[in-house]
Write a structure and sequence with these properties.
242 residues; mainly alpha; 76% helix
């Protein structure tokens, strides 16, 4: 706000908005303690308390942005696009249908109500521009601004939903690949263990054979050589083969 005042020469009461932002920060900071106390008195489950806290903080953000928009001209506010921010966080907390039902529609409806009350001159209109502008009294401008706002919010919700869906699908694919690679690594580890066991048995057999040769003398050596010979050596000799 202060940068906007200095750069764009906007005429708005930043002191009041600063008080509003501080109050919203206090509410956001104490939201968990507040709804934890309420949930304990009402005997809520922990999941219900967390859900209530998320909804409360989301509505606080939405109320702050609506107050900022009203203080800077409602349908003429240069900060009208900031309604995207609380909706962006809301769509990551709840489903798209609930975001549209409980956040997007109330945001557009609140802006339309404030703009209509200003159009009917039932409430005060705050002009943040350095020049006098009565465009908020034009019904065509009022309807056009609401249509642009609705289209922008709808586009943002669609892009956010598409991005989240693709991100979840990518994460699920990576998780499946990681699980498959882990299974393959486990199988290879088992094969390595089996091969090492076989090599250990072979090495132990060879070492025991060498020990018998060393302790048994020539007879053990000839016996060991006999066992290491080819299977054809076990066939008895007969004159018919010569």
């Amino acid at each position: 706000m202060f940068c906007a005042q200095q750069i764009a020469n906007l005429q708005c009461k930043a002191e009041h908005l600063l008080v509003l932002f501080i109050a919203a920060s206090v509410l956001q900071y104490n939201a968990v303690a507040l709804w934890t106390a309420v949930g304990r008195r009402a005997s809520w489950a922990r999941h219900t308390i967390d859900t209530a806290t998320l909804w409360f903080t989301s509505y606080v953000d939405l109320a702050v942005v609506l107050a900022l928009i009203y203080a800077t001209g409602t349908v003429q506010s240069p900060f009208l696009f900031m309604l995207i921010i609380p909706l962006f966080f809301a769509i990551n907390l709840v489903s798209v249908r609930n975001t549209i039902r409980y956040f997007a529609i109330p945001a557009v409806a609140a802006t339309a109500l404030l703009g209509y009350l200003e159009l009917a001159q039932l409430i005060r209109h705050f002009n943040c521009y350095p020049f006098a502008d009565g465009m908020f009294l034009n019904p065509h401008y009022y309807i056009g601004a609401l249509l642009v706002l609705s289209a922008s919010l709808g586009l943002m919700l669609y892009l956010s939903h598409t991005f989240r869906h693709r991100l979840q699908r990518t994460l699920s694919t990576l998780t499946e690949r990681t699980r498959a690679n882990g299974d393959r690594i486990l199988e290879l580890t088992r094969l390595v263990d089996i091969s090492m066991g076989i090599n250990s048995v072979i090495s132990l057999d060879r070492s025991s054979s060498r020990t018998r040769i060393a302790t048994g003398g020539p007879a053990a050596a000839s016996s060991a050589r006999g066992t290491e010979s080819s299977p054809s050596s076990d066939i008895p000799w007969s004159p018919a083969r010569t």
